[in-house]
Structure formats: structure tokens, C-alpha cells
Design goal:
Blueprint: E1 2-9, H1 12-29, E2 34-38, H2 44-54, E3 70-75, E4 78-84, H3 93-103, E5 108-113, E6 126-133, E7 140-147, H4 154-157
Parallel strand pairs: 2-5, 2-6, 4-5
Antiparallel strand pairs: 1-7, 3-4, 6-7
């Protein structure tokens, strides 16, 4: 594991800006997948909204796939696949095969909420973003780690505008 760093967000808009910076770089450097970890209400879906909006998706169409486990958003650069495994009791072969096929498709942007349920099968490289609540109602601490990467630290350098306390 290589830690990219921590970013502080004081609002949903700042969380969306962090996501947009990552999406913009992701678009240029094809990083797969992004695993989003954190408690309920910690900002994971807000992050997905910012990511998708940067790639041209109408943010009002972005919703949590908690009950469906997968939402797909089409963009001119490829499809965004937003997985949410919160309600997944056990990953069966069909779920794992579908995820594997999507991850390895060259035009797929993959964001996974509650990846703990399928971490044992995640191919490397992947990025992990951990969301933690801060001492204020809207404050979030985003810790960005990478697994299986060889170098490319462009993503965090693009985030320099965000607050770091």
C-alpha cells in the first residue's frame, strides 16, 4: 500500500471538487477501480456525484445503488459503474464474474462502495478512498491510498487546492 495523502472537505461541494479532480485525471490516466470506504452518510455517494458530473453525467441522475447494487451512467468517455455492496450477504460467482468483466473493460470507470465485501477478489492496481467524519457536521477527512501502483502520483498533486489542516 502507498498512501497518497489526506484531504479535508468542509462541504459536499468540496467533496465533489475532490472527486472531479480525480475523475479528470482518471480520464487521462485510466486508473481502475476506486474503492470508497466509510460509514453510512460519510460522503461516498456525494463523491460519486462529483466524479460523474465531471465526466458529463447530470448529477440529479446519480443515486446510491444500495437496493440495486449497481448503477450505470453513460458518458462520452465510457461508462461509469457505481457498485454498492452494503446489502450483499455473500458474493456469488455471478456477482464476481460481472465485476471482473466490468473492471477489465477498457472503457469502464468503476467506483465501489462497501468494497470490504469483495476485497479478496479485487485485482490490483486499485485506489482506496476512506471517508471519515470530522469534528464539524460537514467536515470529512478523505484518506487516499493506492494498492499495486508503480509510481504515478499525479492524482494527489492535482488536489493541491483543497484544504489540508
Amino acid at each position: 500500500m502507498n498512501e497518497y495523502g489526506q484531504k479535508i472537505s468542509l462541504s459536499e461541494d468540496e467533496t465533489k471538487k475532490i472527486a472531479a479532480k480525480i475523475a479528470d485525471n482518471f480520464n487521462k490516466n485510466k486508473i481502475l477501480p476506486i474503492c470508497l470506504k466509510g460509514n453510512l452518510g460519510s460522503g461516498k455517494t456525494v463523491f460519486v456525484k462529483g466524479f460523474a458530473e465531471c465526466l458529463g453525467v447530470n448529477v440529479s441522475n446519480v443515486k446510491s445503488p444500495t437496493y440495486t447494487y449497481l448503477r450505470k451512467y453513460e458518458t462520452s468517455n465510457g461508462n461509469i459503474y457505481h457498485f454498492d455492496y452494503y446489502r450483499l450477504e455473500e458474493a456469488d460467482n455471478l456477482v464476481l464474474e460481472e465485476l471482473d468483466e466490468i473492471i477489465h473493460h477498457p472503457n469502464s470507470y468503476v467506483l465501489i462502495e462497501w468494497p470490504e465485501k469483495i476485497e479478496h477478489i479485487l485485482p490490483k492496481p486499485y485506489m482506496e478512498i476512506r471517508f471519515e467524519a470530522g469534528e464539524y457536521p460537514n467536515k470529512r477527512i478523505l484518506t487516499i491510498n493506492r494498492y499495486g501502483y508503480n509510481g504515478n502520483s499525479k492524482i494527489v498533486s492535482t488536489l493541491s487546492y483543497t484544504r489540508s489542516y
